[in-house]
Amino acid sequence: MEKNRTTQDVYLVGVGVSPGIAIGQVSLLDHRYPVYELHIEAEEIDTEIKRFRQAVAEATTQLQRIKERVSEQVHLREHLYILDTHMLILEDEMLVGATETAIRTQRNAESALRQVLKNLRSLFDNIEDEYLRERHSDVDAVGERLLRILCGADEQMTGRVENEAIIVAHDLSPAETMQVDRSRVLGFLTDKGGRTSHTAILARSLDIPAVVGLETITSQVEDRQTIIIDGESGVVVLNPSPATICKYQQRKKHFEHLEHELEDYRNLPAITTDGMRISLCGNLEMESEFKLAHKHAAEGIGLYRTEFLFLGRQQPPSEEEQFDAYCSALERMDGQSVTIRTLDIGGDKFVTGLNLDDEANPAMGLRAVRFSLQEEGLFRVQLRAILRASGRGRVRIMFPLISGVAEIRACKRILREVTKELQRQGFACNPDIPVGIMIETPAAVMIAPFLAQEVDFFSIGTNDLIQYFLAVDRGNQHVAYLYDSFHPAILRALKMTCDAAHAAGISVCICGEMAGEPLYTLVLIGLGLDGMSMNPSCIPRVKRVLRHVSREQGKELVERLLTLPTSKEVSVAIDLHMRTLLPDLFARPLL
Q1: I need a labelling partner for 508 at 20 to 30 A (CA). Which of 36, 113, 257, 309 fits?
Q2: Residue 198 falls in the annotated catalytic set
Q3: Residue 75 known to be catalytic
Q4: Residue 136 near residue 120, CB atoms below 8 Å
């Protein structure tokens, strides 16, 4: 693609992952290096394996050096686990052992490693949960580090930015991101990445504006080109005119003023102007996210993902391992409620000790609760660990991808059996542990009144619900544009679910990406949501909106939205309404 060198005010839109506005010149990082794929002779195999092992040793040394440097920076210490994870990957048979096996088929180390990385990416691509799918970036980062070493390329380049600049790269590894000089780096732009990528998480910790997922930004800019980035809206402006620069400078001041105001909201209750209290919780799993939950005053964990305990292992985690993890979560949340979702992956694609056939369509195959009910032994172990943890604090249990009453009854039957078993064995547990389900399928929405009679709470997983309701694979670039939170069918599905829950006297919350988007907040409370669970860093902005609006205003807006036939009309109506109602909070441009 030809670079935009002269045309003024070229607007691009990516995924805004770290709020803030930056105006500066590009520092383009080129991660390209030659990777030669060669056939080697049989007598060269041992030499090639030795070369690969030396690369693994050098990669470990590099990561250890980086860890020592980063440990001196207080704001990054909580993310050191990422580097530890990368060092563990360098010992993993799925990467190292598989590469050596591939070399023995008479391929050079670079070629063998690249093929193994490709195979591992295909495994992660089939994971439905965006957070877990993004974890393939850890394997990619380690693999790319090994390839650089094998090819004799530089270790990293982010620390070499000499003047204040906006880094533009195809992707940034956690190690590269951690080593940036905050006094010189104004922002990040990348071709790859999503809201839950490590680049995004680290950018937020560094308080550096970032936009990812721009796909072709590296081919559209060049060094020292002036650009503007808005890390909240995801807007990027190439070659901004003087008038545009002036406009964004004013927005930058406005943003910094609002950010300062957010500190005042931390200890205030999440309550609407007409007295409606809304629970604001965090979606999390990793150590650093618990600290974010405390920092942003999360009222508990609304979605505790357990999949990270299972991924990339030869055998599933033991009952004791899971029990320790769940107890640790309770301790970190200081007595607040923790909602634990049972395993939401499926098959031997991710738990290598299990034997299941490959599936042509894993998103609609044997996964989540379906997988748990088939692999009942594995399910019982997890339920035992969760129930034992319930004896230590406020635990709720949540079953994913429920599509019928028979499934939830089967889950509850096994839960009762496990509870009695634990009681006979003398373990402390809560026999009345609150039980909830994820509403993620059209079937669950349509029979929500029946499901509500079976459980204590609903949690709407909008990420899956939207793609299943609209029959859209959001990972498919040809149809991803149809994945639309504003679709009238989605609004109706949410309202039906909320109405069914309240008619049965149970609570309903939302834990998809919609929960963390302030623009949706008024709509969600108008639909009747009792709580929202999100990335903890989103809580202050959502709370700020909540405290400026009423549920009655939300109901009036929803009534109007339900009369609109298209996503575009709904989107425009919400945007204009929020800009009119709260102009200081929603001042970003419409594109």
Answers
A1: 309
A2: yes
A3: no
A4: yes
CB 304 within 8 A of CB 341: yes
Residue 337 CB contacts under 8 Å (≥ 6 apart), including other chains: 281, 299, 300, 301, 394, 395, 396
Residue 82 CB coordination number (10 Å):
25
For 129-144, give the DSSP string: -HHHHTTHHHHHHHHH
The full set of domains in the chain, from first to last, is 10-29+164-240 (3.50.30.10), 42-151 (1.10.274.10), 268-581 (3.20.20.60)
Give the angle 26-28-32 at the CA atoms, nearest 5°.
170
In the set 86, 198, 487, 577, the catalytic residue is 198
Q: pLDDT of 54-89, one tens digit each?
A: 999 999 998 888 888 777 665 566 567 678 878 888
Start-to-end C-alpha separation, the chain: 22
Low-confidence ranges of the chain (pLDDT < 70): 1-5, 30-34, 72-79, 81, 123-135, 154-162, 196, 198, 285-288, 311-314, 346-364, 474-481, 587-591
Residue with tokens 């790859």: 192
Torsion sign across C-alpha atoms 507, 511, 516, 519: negative
Mean pLDDT of the chain: 85
pTM: 0.71
Catalytic residue among 327, 411, 498, 511: 511
